[in-house]
């Protein structure tokens, strides 16, 4: 408990408090009056309203579209399941600038919808909502599907033997068991969409703005720290309210579950219903996720002299690399290193936090639980600037250290780790830990020997998330001063920030590589789980 | 030498004391069985000794040392859980080796030991089997091997044979007894099954509502239950109020002879079924209590009869298979003083 | 591969460096400063935005001749990088800050961010970019023009002349052709707004924008979208079926299209409307409280040296400020010289920027 508390105190609470303090405190004391002034501005009220409702609708839409997907990936065994599960996570890591443009190929002018039915969604709110589904599909599939795969299907079968119809059995047995995971996924999707930045700008155009955009403008461009501080507080309040609702919804649901080997719950689809469902899911994935990604890949090969590897070759070309301090290909190594470090930090901090949270109850624990989620809903620029003014004294003058990048990325990774591990940890029978203790295992050892193996799958899912998040993390990476070692997203953004066919093509090629790196990393992580352990897991 | 000493151990759940000022000593190499119905606090007692549950009062001493500040994993005791709690993610060998690995043993050191233990519990060569593939009895044996592996100074068993079928239970009880005496293990077991307790233990402790109702050798407890509760728990239902005067007690069944030296005055008496002697009213051989046989149950070597006496509550009797009366027969009942125990008044 | 290793070594060294600093930083602050004054003075740190670039060999040469090791820290875009410096004023992360431009110069100067220093070789720098000539708190390093670019092929096809001035853009023949960026979030977007302010004055620009809006100007959020998605003259825009032949970009964009063409075209596919430009000048300054002031001064000298100035165009696509710096061939051949860019005084920008942007937003976006 002490480690995660210290981590969050030092790398989140303190920096954010400091930056808010800078904005609201003058020599004459706190200026709470500013809050009222800012909030009554009609443009701010508009932004707040838009931010909130689009996040709620996006979350609902994501659940609606992704829950069948979670089922299909968890319970139906079909060819290419693992590959596809990695693919749906790819959007998560791509810089929004890149994906936004690919998404336009689906909903924009001349896009698929336009050509088929003459429907154009860009610069409408629908484009934003759909893109949010695109980005967050994996969150639902992975968190909900992860637990779903481990639920004992016999319980549902038992309910059906007792006379419940297929849907009734699902609603009364499976849904309640999935409750915590669904709630956790919704919460994360909400937080992500609430703090959406790039998607809203690219697809919505300048007339749509979220709080995040406003905070960025006020802080990074105008240095109006007062307004930024108020908006940050508003973000806190909104996120806090949602966390409250979430805690209330989950507390009644979390129970010990009997978990089984996920490999045993998946079966080939049977019957018209399951086949139709699977078909629908695959079609959704193809249209919503594979198509936009495919457009990126297509463009990366679309060289002037016809399709070819030109842009990829250019990545190693002297003419192209001359403009960089390091070759774009080295960005892959940088990305993997940063993401690896961030994942390690997130796993340690998140794992400890989840372990502590799983064992203790009480309002303090719930409060800490909520605190862990806050970074998802707070602007990267707030945290980044907070770092600058708090971590500036020895022994913690980290302002120019590379470690700040993975630290900031880990802040976003930790909530994933906690959210993914907690339901499983709570489902582990406490007496197994006691059995280990009586056999001589210290609490730490018991955690390592009992909890960890049992939650290994959850850990791997969490690690995958944390890894993917830090691989694609752009906001904080770009803000935090770092000796020049660009990550893939940074390199892509740099290439896109220049004119010239070669730069554009290389940006597409690097994006494709980023997708590959992400997909391969996730596949490798999934493979790790099927090694020598026997027994149920 | 006393290995385990409990002094005034009290555990409260809310305002209910589930363990109420329990004192108990277990000597080295002794096998003690705590016997009691479910909810009598016996499992809680084990958890207190193991360090999994902090007592609200009293002291646990192991080898003379107060364990108050010693966490569970440093107490050096073993506990076999009622439902085994085998680690589902490890195979049989991994489960048995767990305690050895925790103590830093290397594979080369613990593998022969695991093999030895599995042989000991009758599962030779089962190392690589998955826990989920084991039957209840096999899981039990693995749990036992796992608990034995680190050679705990005190081995605690929670309903060790609880979930097994009868034949297996009786056989395992005998095996365990032999095993413990061979290994010289100090054992504290809890069970609700008197047969199990008597088969295993050097000494039996009967618990009721968190308190010790009686402690003694199986024979002592069997022969001289200390209270109506113990008597009934041991399965003796022939208990009635009585007024003892000399060697005769006046009871609802009429006069009952009691052993010489029994306490005098208002008490209860227990008549063990074997002490109910039956006669044929037709032959008139001796006077006795007139009864009708209400039911007859075979018990393998003997028959248990439920009698409805002319006066007083239902009476249970035992007789040989040969010549046992049938249901509806009329019999007379007399009482053998050796099988009568005077119990304190309720 | 060896670069990778070196890089990894660099990471390690940087990490160790931090640790070492941390380890000896247990005493009071003055001790530490003294220590870094002598012990650490061989490293000079440049803080900049993400667009900063320099050819490796050019930097190496400076390191060799000066004896300093240069550490470059990049953080965010120009605005974010400057604001980060303001937040850490007096206790900076490095010695020199590069990347404050004339739209933000006042904010930097008002916050007293820099120690005055007159760079060696400043005499060779063009006079019109020396905006702090009296005090030398900042030194001009580069300039660049934000201008409307046009798709040559489109106008050749349609047989109409491409626009050249701001006035041209509101003419009916250019209806629905221009895409620009959000002035609130994009630096070229703001530059273009300032060009109109410079041309039409504090009130007149609003009328102009009303006409521009009536003439179908499209506003997107950032340069990447405008140039790579909507503009028909760029590689990305062609793939994304961009249909706007006019875009607000940089005067250096056409040469860049040539340099990064695949294969390199003989002529730039795009042109610059030279009557639509706003000139951005970027400055560097010696940070107050710099741990290595001497090194910082040497670094600023380097930034206005001929070597760096001539390296800059192909690294950051900006123009040198040194009078005798040679432009690369691609720039002289495919680029244009903007004779009369629009101008707004830094003080006026500082004072009115937020208000202009707000007015612009409600006029054009909403």
TrEMBL record, chain A:
Pfam families: BPD_transp_1
Residue ranges annotated for the ABC transmembrane type-1 domain, each copy included: 48-244, 332-525
Transmembrane segments: 53-74, 86-106, 126-145, 181-205, 225-249, 277-297, 338-358, 370-391, 403-422, 458-481, 504-525
Membrane-topology annotation of the record: Multi-pass membrane protein
Cell membrane as UniProt keyword: yes
Main location: membrane
Name used for this protein in its record: Iron ABC transporter permease
Organism lineage string: Bacteria, Bacillati, Actinomycetota, Actinomycetes, Kitasatosporales
Family per similarity comment: Belongs to the binding-protein-dependent transport system permease family.
Keywords: Cell inner membrane, Cell membrane, Membrane, Transmembrane, Transmembrane helix, Transport
Organism of this sequence: Streptomyces antimicrobicus
Record localization: Cell inner membrane; Cell membrane
Automatic annotation (TrEMBL), chain B:
Record-linked Gene3D superfamilies: P-loop containing nucleotide triphosphate hydrolases (3.40.50.300)
Domain ABC transporter: 4-234
Coiled coil: none
Alphabetical UniProt keywords: ATP-binding, Nucleotide-binding, Transport
Pfam families (alphabetical): ABC_tran, TOBE_2
GO molecular function ontology, one term from the record: ATP binding
Record-linked InterPro entries: AAA+_ATPase, ABC_SmlMolc_Importer, ABC_transporter-like_ATP-bd, ABC_transporter-like_CS, Mo/tungstate-bd_C_term_dom, P-loop_NTPase, Transp-assoc_OB_typ2
Name of this chain's protein: ABC transporter ATP-binding protein
Organism name: Streptomyces antimicrobicus
Lineage: Bacteria, Bacillati, Actinomycetota, Actinomycetes, Kitasatosporales
Automatic annotation (TrEMBL), chain C:
Pfam families documented for this protein: SBP_bac_8
Signal sequence region: 1-23
Keywords associated with the record: Signal
Record-linked InterPro entries: SBP, ThiB-like
Protein name: Thiamine ABC transporter substrate-binding protein
Species whose genome carries this gene: Streptomyces antimicrobicus
């Amino acid at each position: 408990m002490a480690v995660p508390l210290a981590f969050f105190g030092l790398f989140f609470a303190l920096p954010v408090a400091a930056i808010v303090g800078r904005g609201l405190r003058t020599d004459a004391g706190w200026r709470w009056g500013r809050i009222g002034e800012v909030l009554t501005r009609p443009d701010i009220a508009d932004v707040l309203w838009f931010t909130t409702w689009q996040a709620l609708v996006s979350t609902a839409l994501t659940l609606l579209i992704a829950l069948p997907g979670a089922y299909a990936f968890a319970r139906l065994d079909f060819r290419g399941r693992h590959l596809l599960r990695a693919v749906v996570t790819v959007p998560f890591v791509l810089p929004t600038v890149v994906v936004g443009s690919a998404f336009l190929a689906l909903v924009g002018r001349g896009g698929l919808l336009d050509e088929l039915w003459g429907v154009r969604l860009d610069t409408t709110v629908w484009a934003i909502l759909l893109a949010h589904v695109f980005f967050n599909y994996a969150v639902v599939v992975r968190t909900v599907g992860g637990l779903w795969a481990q639920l004992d299907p016999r319980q549902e079968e038992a309910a059906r033997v007792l006379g419940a119809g297929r849907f009734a059995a699902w609603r009364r047995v499976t849904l309640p068991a999935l409750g915590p995971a669904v709630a956790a996924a919704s919460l994360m999707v909400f937080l992500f969409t609430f703090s959406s930045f790039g998607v809203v700008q690219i697809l919505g155009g300048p007339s749509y703005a979220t709080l995040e955009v406003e905070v960025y403008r006020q802080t990074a461009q105008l240095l109006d720290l007062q307004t930024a501080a108020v908006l940050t507080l508003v973000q806190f309040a909104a996120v806090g309210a949602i966390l409250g609702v979430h805690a209330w919804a989950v507390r009644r649901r979390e129970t010990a579950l009997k978990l089984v080997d996920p490999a045993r719950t998946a079966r080939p689809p049977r019957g018209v219903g399951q086949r139709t469902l699977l078909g629908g899911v695959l079609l959704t994935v193809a249209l919503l996720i594979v198509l936009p990604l495919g457009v990126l890949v297509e463009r990366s090969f679309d060289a002037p002299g016809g399709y070819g590897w030109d842009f990829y070759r250019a990545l190693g070309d002297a003419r192209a690399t001359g403009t960089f301090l390091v070759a774009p290909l080295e960005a892959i190594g940088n990305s993997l290193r940063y993401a690896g470090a961030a994942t390690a930090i997130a796993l340690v901090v998140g794992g400890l936090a989840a372990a502590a949270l799983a064992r203790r109850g009480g309002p303090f624990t719930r409060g800490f639980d909520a605190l862990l989620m806050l970074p998802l809903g707070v602007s990267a620029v707030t945290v980044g600037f907070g770092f600058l003014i708090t971590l500036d004294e020895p022994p913690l003058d980290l302002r120019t250290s590379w470690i700040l990048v993975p630290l900031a990325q880990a802040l976003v990774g930790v909530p994933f780790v906690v959210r993914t591990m907690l339901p499983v940890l709570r489902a582990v029978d406490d007496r197994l830990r006691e059995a280990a203790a009586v056999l001589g295992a210290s609490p730490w050892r018991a955690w390592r020997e009992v909890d960890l193996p049992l939650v290994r799958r959850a850990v791997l899912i969490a690690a995958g998330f944390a890894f993917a998040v830090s691989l694609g993390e752009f906001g904080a990476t770009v803000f935090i001063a770092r000796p020049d070692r660009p990550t893939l997203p940074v390199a892509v953004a740099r290439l896109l920030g220049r004119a010239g066919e070669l730069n554009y093509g290389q940006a597409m090629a690097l994006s494709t590589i980023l997708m590959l790196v992400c997909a391969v990393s996730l596949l490798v992580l999934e493979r790790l789980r099927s090694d020598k352990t026997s027994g149920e897991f | 030498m006393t290995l385990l000493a409990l002094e005034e151990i009290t555990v409260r759940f809310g305002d209910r004391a589930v363990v109420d000022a329990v004192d108990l000593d277990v000597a080295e190499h002794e096998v003690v069985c705590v016997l009691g119905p479910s909810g009598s606090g016996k499992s809680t007692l084990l958890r207190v000794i193991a360090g999994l549950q902090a007592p609200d009062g009293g002291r646990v001493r192991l080898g003379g040392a107060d364990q108050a500040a010693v966490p569970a994993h440093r107490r050096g005791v073993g506990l076999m859980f009622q439902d085994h709690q085998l680690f589902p993610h490890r195979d049989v060998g991994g489960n048995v080796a767990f305690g050895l690995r925790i103590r830093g043993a290397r594979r080369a050191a613990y593998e022969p030991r695991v093999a030895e233990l599995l042989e000991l519990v009758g599962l030779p060569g089962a190392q690589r089997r998955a826990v989920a593939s084991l039957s209840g009895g096999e899981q039990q044996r693995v749990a036992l091997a796992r608990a034995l592996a680190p050679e705990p100074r005190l081995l605690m068993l929670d309903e060790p044979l609880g979930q097994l079928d009868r034949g297996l239970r009786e056989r395992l009880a005998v095996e365990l007894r032999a095993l413990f005496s061979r290994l010289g293990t100090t054992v504290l077991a809890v069970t609700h099954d008197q047969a199990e307790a008597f088969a295993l233990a050097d000494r039996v402790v009967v618990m009721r509502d968190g308190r010790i109702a009686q402690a003694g050798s199986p024979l002592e407890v069997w022969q001289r239950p200390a209270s109506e509760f113990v008597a009934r728990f041991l399965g003796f239902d022939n208990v009635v109020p009585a007024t003892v005067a000399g060697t005769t007690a006046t009871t609802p069944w009429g006069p009952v002879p009691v052993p010489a030296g029994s306490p005098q005055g208002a008490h209860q008496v227990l008549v063990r079924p074997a002490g109910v002697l039956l006669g044929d009213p037709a032959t008139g051989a001796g006077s006795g209590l007139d009864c009708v046989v209400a039911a007859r149950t075979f018990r393998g070597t003997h028959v248990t009869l439920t009698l409805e006496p002319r006066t007083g509550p239902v009476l249970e009797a035992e007789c040989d298979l040969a010549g046992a009366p049938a249901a509806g027969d009329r019999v007379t009942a007399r009482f053998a003083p050796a099988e009568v125990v005077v119990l304190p008044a309720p | 591969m060896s670069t990778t290793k070196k890089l990894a070594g660099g990471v390690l060294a940087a990490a160790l460096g931090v640790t070492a600093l941390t380890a000896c930083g247990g005493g009071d602050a003055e001790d530490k400063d003294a220590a870094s004054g002598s012990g650490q003075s061989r490293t000079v740190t440049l803080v900049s935005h993400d667009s900063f670039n320099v050819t490796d060999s050019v930097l190496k040469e400076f390191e060799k001749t000066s004896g300093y090791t240069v550490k470059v820290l990049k953080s965010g875009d120009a605005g974010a990088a400057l604001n980060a410096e303001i937040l850490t004023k007096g206790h900076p992360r490095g010695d020199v800050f590069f990347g404050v431009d004339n739209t933000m110069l006042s904010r930097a100067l008002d916050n007293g961010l820099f120690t005055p220093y007159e760079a060696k070789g400043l005499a060779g720098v063009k006079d019109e970019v020396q905006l702090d000539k009296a005090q030398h708190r900042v030194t001009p390093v580069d300039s660049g023009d934000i201008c409307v670019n046009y798709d040559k092929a489109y106008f050749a096809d349609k047989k109409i002349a491409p626009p050249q001035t701001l006035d041209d853009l509101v003419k009916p023949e250019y209806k629905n052709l221009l895409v620009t960026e959000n002035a609130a979030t994009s630096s070229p977007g703001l530059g273009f707004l300032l060009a109109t302010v410079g041309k039409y004055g504090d009130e007149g620009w609003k009328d102009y924008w009303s006409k521009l809006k009536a003439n179908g100007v499209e506003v997107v959020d950032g340069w990447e979208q405008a140039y790579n998605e909507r503009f028909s003259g760029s590689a990305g825009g062609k793939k994304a079926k961009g249909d706007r032949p006019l875009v607000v970009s940089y005067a250096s964009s056409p040469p860049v299209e040539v340099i990064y063409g695949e294969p390199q075209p003989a002529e730039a596919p795009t042109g610059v409307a030279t009557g639509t430009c706003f000139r951005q000048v970027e400055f560097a300054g010696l940070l107050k409280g710099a741990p290595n002031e001497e090194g910082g001064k040497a670094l600023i000298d380097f930034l206005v040296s001929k070597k760096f100035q001539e390296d800059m165009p192909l690294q950051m696509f900006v123009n040198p400020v040194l009078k005798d710096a040679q432009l690369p061939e691609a720039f002289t051949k495919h680029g244009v010289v903007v004779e009369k860019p629009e101008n707004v005084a830094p003080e006026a920008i500082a004072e009115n920027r937020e208000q202009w942007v707000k007015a612009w937003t409600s006029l054009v976006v909403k």
